[in-house]
Amino acid sequence: MTLTPPSGTPSVGAPQPVIELERVTKVYRTGSISVAALRGVSLSIDQGEYVAVIGPSGSGKSTLMHILGCLDVPTSGRYHLAGEDVSHMSETALAEVRNRRIGFVFQQFNLLASMSAWQNVELPLSYAGVPRAERKERALEALGRVGLAGRVHHRPGELSGGQQQRVAVARALVTEPDLILADEPTGNLDSVSAADVLRLMGELHETGRTLLLITHDVEVASAAGRVIGIRDGLLTEDDHRFAESLR
Amino acid sequence: MSWLETFRTGVYGVLSHRLRSFLTVLGILIGIAGVIIAVGLGEGASSQVTSEINALGSNVLTVTPGSSTSSTGIRGALGSASTLTTADASALSSHVDAPDVQAVAPITSDTEVLTAGSETATTSVQGTTPDWLSIRGRTLAEGRFIDNQDVKDHGAVAVLGATTASELFTRGDPVGQTVDVNGIPVTVVGVLTSTGASSASSTTTSDPDDVMIIPISTGAERIFGGTSRNSVSSIAVQARSSADLTGAYQEADHLLLELHGITNPTDADFTITSEQSLIAANTSVDHTLTILLGGIAAISLIVGGIGVMNIMLVSVTERIREIGLRKALGATPRVIRRQFLVEASVLGFIGGIVGVLGGLLGVAYLPGLIGDPISTSPTAAVGALAIALAIGVLFGVYPASRAAAMAPIDALRND
Q1: List of chain A residues whose C-beta atoms are within 8 Å of the C-beta of residue B336
Q2: Fewest Cβ atoms closer than 10 Å to its Cβ: which of A90, B118, B292, B364?
Q3: Which of A86, A87, A127, A81 lies closest to A101, judged by CA?
């Protein structure tokens, strides 16, 4: 068994890896053609880290994000998420892992248009089987944390892009996940809103959250403490100085 | 995720696409309302016919001549030979030989041209005895019926049906007037109450309101031609009650066979029919009608169900992003499948409820417009509702499985 501390409690001293990838490959087969999107990626991310994965389109960063987010399984290699091997799980088991351990923030916000902000935020809690009253309470609290306490009854259409993305961040937070996975979170935002969302991510990092940000934008990546480059399915750079050099 | 939670999500799905949901529901609604009205129409027609026949007298047997199969195996056509006589009728009225028989009315009939002043009418003239009135369950609108004295005296008197009376005497009271039949003047002594059965909807071949009733003796001696003055066209036999009908049938059959000297019942030169056999025949016709109408409505219901499936499939394709998002947030394939199943069932159920209401409204108000009675059938209503729900589930399974099987990355990739 693993010796992972309870999730959500950043241990002082020796931080435990939240993510451990070992020689992970992903090959897509379309008929007789095979495309290797990931060609052996090993990566370890500790609890409380703020990591950006940067790469051009076609580099394999979306595939990496899908595997890290348990939306897809690797062709070979091993993936431990918070000490749990998720490399060969069934779709149902993966759904539970996603619900419990990962909070997603997408480029297109992906809010349900006919639900109010708090209903969108409580959605992952309803899949976790949390009782209604507690769900609402936690959803309102999460919206408060992203500065939208006054807009809980607004529908996505009544909110600005930046506000919508903050609702999405609140939804990612509300389950207290081990990992928050943001895929181009500023891609659809103007520079003011983008800076706003990045500031929010920075605040979350300061409260001890583990964040992984996927982007093609150097400026966005520079917000993270650690930057990992990816190209042609392989990690190119992975160090803190790389992050510094981007600043 | 609990069923209640899933149900809430399903209702949310239905309500967030109102127009589409409404159109889907419409398909089911029409089918269900159609089933209820069609079944109601069939049952309504059936009960109307039954009550009409009941009005004729459900405990009445009719003996007609014919159906004689000679020893050589040649069967005489129905009514071809006048093998029934007034003597048969008097024998049947014996309380000793036929204790289950209450009343007997021999009937002779022919179609004659009646003349009253400048008006003429071609009418069925029936010669009979006073018991005819009670056996046929008829009443008089005015005047009196023929009595035993008229029969004894070969009296030149007649009672007219309502239609005949109004045709011959457009003005004034028919009672006391004279009508010419075959050159014989007869005096109208009474008019029968209208049965209300129009000739179009009547199950009997002749209009019961277009008749002229005369004493049987008058018919035989003075009006109808023919060789045998004792032969009759039919004999109406009334049993004491519906329960005694079988007894009366057996007694009449036995008595007539004996009187006619026939030993083998298959050689009988007469036929006894009951109104109940008419009812049975009509009921089976109406039953077929109900099945036919119900079948057509059921087909429209299936079409409605295919509509549900179609819309659900479109819905699954259109909501790929939503499905992908829900999966990313932790919805298992089972939860997604349930959500879409519940949505389809909700559509079916709403369609069913509104359809039943629409059907019941139709049952309540349509008879006023089309003039035919429609029965309310609780079985059809409950059954249709169950079918609507079943259709929602049945036709929702495939789209729901498609949604459940969708890979989350494919669903999310759709930009």
Answers
A1: none
A2: B118
A3: A81
- Pick the closest to residue B216 from B142, B135, B148, B138 (CA basis): B148
Kindly state the helix (H) or strand (E) to which residue A93 belongs, with its residue range.
Answer: helix A91-101
CB pairs under 8 A between A and B: 63
Indicate yes or no: pTM above 0.80. no
Q: And the tokens for B255?
A: 């008595």
Q: How far is residue B329's CA from residue A184's CA, in Å, rounded to a whole number?
A: 18
**Amino acid residing at A62:** S
ipTM: 0.87
| Closest Cβ opposite residue B1 in set A104, A112, A126 | A126
Identity of the residue numbered A46: D
Average pLDDT for consecutive 10-residue bins of chain A (247 residues)?
45 70 90 88 92 89 90 92 90 92 91 90 92 92 92 93 93 93 90 91 90 89 88 80 59
Cα–Cα distance, A208 to A9 (Å, whole number) = 8
How far lies B103's CA from each of A161, B132, B214, B276, B388, in Å? 95, 9, 18, 18, 54
Shortest CA distance to A217 belongs to which of A61, A96, A100? A61
Beta-carbon count within 10 A of A193 CB: 18
- What angle is formed at CA A65 by the lines to CA A59 and CA A68, rounded to 5 degrees? 130
Instruction: Say yes or no for a CB contact (<8 Å) between B328 and A171.
Output: no
Q: Which candidate, A166, A229, A239, places its Cα nearest to that of A203?
A: A166
pLDDT at res. B221: 82
Name the one residue in this structure whose structure tokens are 């992003």: B321
Q: Nearest C-alpha of chain A: how many angstroms from B12?
A: 9
Q: Determine, for residues B329 and A112 on separate chains, whether the beta-carbon distance falls below 8 Å.
A: no
State which H helix or E strand residue B233 sits in: none
Contacts of A133 (CB under 8 A, 6+ apart): none
The SS3 assignment for B242 reads: helix
Query: Strands, DSSP E only, in B224-354?
Result: 234-239, 270-274
Q: Which position has the token pair 């219901």?
A: B301
Supply the Cα-derived Rg of chain A in whole angstroms: 18
Interface residue ranges in chain A relative to chain B, Cβ cutoff 8 Å = 66, 69, 71-72, 91-92, 95-96, 98-100, 104, 106, 108, 110, 112-115, 123-124, 126-129, 171
